[in-house]
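Researcher: Next entry in the queue.
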Amino acid sequence: MIPHRIIGMTMGFTQSLRRRTGLEVLFGRLVEGLGSAHTQIHCPRRWDDDAAATAGFVARNLPADGVVDWIAYSYGGGVWFPKFEQALFDAHGRSVRRLYMIDPVPRFRPFAWLGGRLDRFKVHIRHAQGGDVYYQEMDYPRSPGVMWPQEHVSATLPVGHAELDNWAEVHDRIVQGLKK
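Model: Structure for this entry, 180 residues:
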């Protein structure tokens, strides 16, 4: 049976180390609460995985009216996701319905300011139809913000970057949003 919905997620820079991550905890919760024959919950992907290959897989394994929802943390949101959404749109004419970004951090570009446009520091989302962005205010790396033409909700939480992906409030908000 081909699913009607895929929920995917992408991890941050050091999240493939030996301890269980917040996205893995959230993955288990999503499998338990939302996984079915019609909704596939994909294992968290690394931030440096092949985004175009993932877009191809998603497009091949959903019907034309299928839905893609995504959760992206740190480099997974700032580096990997923009490549994924562009490949999904360009090659397959699809877009992500709901995007949940957790402190998205783009690749560090020390000379980006030379171009005179400060928005070059931000994460650019072009095709996702809506979603939420969760920021932290305690430490680094810190997201420089998101350029997103569609409506989205932003929240800044009193927690550090490394803890934000495992923050219960973030998980609760994401699960509630995906149940809609």
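Model: DSSP finds five helices and eight strands in the chain.
Researcher: Noted, moving on.
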